[in-house]
Structures are given as structure tokens and as C-alpha cells.
Amino acid sequence: MSETPVHGPDVKTAHQDLHSEQGALHGEHPGRSRNPVIKVADLAWLEFEKPDLERAEVFARDFGFQVAARTESALWLRGSFAGTPCMVIRRGRTSRFIGPAFRAAERADLDRLARAIGSDVRDADVPGGGKAVGLLDPSGFPVRVVHCGEQLRALPEQRPLLLNFGTAHRRTNATQRPPREPSRIQRLGHVVLETRVFSRALDWYLDTLGMIVSDFQFLDGQRERGPVMAFIRCDLGGVPVDHHTLAMHLGPGTGYVHSAYQVTDLDSIAAGGEYLKERGYQRSWGIGRHIQGSQLFDYWRDPDRFMLEHFADGDLFSRDVEPGWAPLSTSGLAQWGPQATRDFLGAGPSPQRIRDVIRALRGDNEMDPARLLGLLKAAKS
């Protein structure tokens, strides 16, 4: 179980207005584990199944991925940065999210993790080879921790535009003409998951994979019951990392919400969005700038209705920054931009959503009528 960490003299607390108006109250979740099994270094890739790999590849290229490897049964996608692929799509009968793979900091971490859970280290079917340990999180998602033997080489970048600011004139005798082309994905940033067992899943990621919380969110009038959403980052000590690599929220369903991929800058987001719109894809929400994480964002739906995000200019935190606490609300999703859409919020009363609510209220989980009403109120606030 996660315990309150020892605070050193250099700890930056949330009430110093670094990223939240509020810090933790006495006795609230500390947002990190005292003695985790291992500390993962980053997300490696996400795994999906889809029946039509050809259609999936067309969207992937339009969205800004490049193909790392392709077989009859699997499509491996990558960004321009060196490292691992961003995503693998395996041929299957239905379109579904399988689970995330996290990158181990060292090969020895796989042995330590395997011993702790009574499992084996196995070969990872990734281009270039590698090793992996398979786990199952409390929500039922298959999770892999991997160490790859061979890294993908860096590819040419989409250069950021040279901008003029006030009296700082960096561009003279030259025009600005960002090309109308796909945003060039640099890397995988984060994945967001919905779960009915939020507290158990949160502690599992902190205790097993050594992740730490950047921001908690709670329901209005229910703070004493604990948070219902967490933005979680990797712990690389003094090395700053993404504000969140994993985000989870309590809900009536269990599943994938969206994943986010870094691009160069705002012009890359905007021009790439125009490219996607011209090809008939659906924008879910954007363009805007978030509050938790601060990143510029633009959300799109792929042909199988999975949501993917282009982002740029996100927050980077080292281990010294303590969790912030804030109420969950739709108005708190962005500093500026259009109002969050019903599509982004998943607010439509679909038959599947109704079944999820009924199942959650009848099951052994953390959903109850008060939590459900609180979530509905947050979605309208």
C-alpha cells in the first residue's frame, strides 16, 4: 500500500502554485509508494487489435505515424524520435484496445518484477527483439513491462517555425508558410484509462511500477471519499518527465479513453488538423490548452472510433514536485479553446454506456449512486 513519502528540503509542494491551487489535506493519498517493486522509465507502446490493417495504416500515416514494421498479422507504428515503436496493431476479429507496455529502466528490473509476481521473463515480439514480463492490473488490463534489445534510429524532424515576438525579430525578409501535411509524430506521450476500481488500480501502478502522481482530482462535495482521477508520471528522480504518462479516472466502464502523441509545435497541430479535416476525419475536440499538464491539444477519432491526441508544449516535472489537488469539472479541462464536446466527454447515452452503468452499480467496485451523480455533475460543470 502506498505510504506518505519522506519530504526532503527541496520538495516543491502544490500550494506553491506550481500547477494547482491546492495541495493535499492531512491524511490524503500521498501519490507515491515508499517501496515500489520497480520504477518504469516510460511508456513503450500501446497494443490494439483491428480487423482491417490496411485502413488502420492509412489513418496512421494521415495522423503522422510512420511504419516501423509490417507483417500479415501486425502493424508496428513509430514516431520520429529514436527508441521503441509507439503502437502495435494486431489483426483481430474486432477493434479493441489490448493494453499498454511500459519500458523498464534496466534489464535487471524485469527479473526483479518477475520474481515479485511469480512470473517469467519472456521474449517480446517487437522489431529488434527484447524481453518482457506480463501482468494484469486490477482493472483487468494486460500490462507488459519490456526491455528492448535494439532501438529504432531517429528519423528527420518537422522543424519548429521561427517566430517573431514583440521586439525579438528572429525572422526577417522571409514569409511563414507551414506546409499542409500530416503532423509528424515524435513519440507516444500518454494513455488515459477508465476504471471502476480506481483506488485499487492507482495503488497498483504506484506500488508495482513505481509511478508517482502529479495531480489528483475529486468530486465536488466528495473530497473526503478520495480522488476519482489521477495524472501519473514516471519517477526518474531529478530528471524532469512528462506531467502524465498514464491518467486514470473512475467511471462506470473499464476501457481505453484516449492516447496522446507529441508533435513539434502549435503550427504542426493546426496544419496537421487541417490535413485530417480535408480527408474526412472527425475532430473530437480542439484546438486548446489544458490545465493539468498545460499541453496544447487537438483530439481526433480514427475510423474505428478510437480517440487520439496531437499535443505539444507539455509540463515536465521532476520527482521533487508533490501532487496537486483540484475539483473535477468540464470547465477545468482547458485554459482556452472551444467548449469540451459531448463526444470528447463520452456523454452520449449509448446502449453500451447504459449497460456499463447498470453493471457498475450492481457489481463489487467503487461505483455507487453518489459517485455516479457526482461524475454527471462534473461533466456539466
In a nutshell, what does this entry contain?
It is built from seven helices and 20 strands.
Can you tell me the CATH class? Alpha Beta
Approximate shape: globular
Gyration radius, rounded: 21 Å
Helix content: 10-25%
List the total number of helices. Answer: 7
Number of domains: 1
- Give, in spatial order, the strands making up the sheet with the most strands: 19-10-11-13-9-14-17-16-15-20
The average pLDDT score comes to 93
Helices and strands: which structural class? alpha+beta
Fourth-tier CATH superfamily name? 2,3-Dihydroxybiphenyl 1,2-Dioxygenase, domain 1
How much of the sequence is in beta strands? 25-35%
Q: What does the largest sheet look like?
A: 10 strands, mixed
Helix/strand order? EHEEEEHEEEEHEEEEEHEEEEEEHHH
CATH topology category name: 2,3-Dihydroxybiphenyl 1,2-Dioxygenase, domain 1
Unreliable spans: 3-7
Please count the beta strands (DSSP E, at least 2 residues each): 20
* CATH architecture verdict: Roll
> Separation of termini?
33 Å
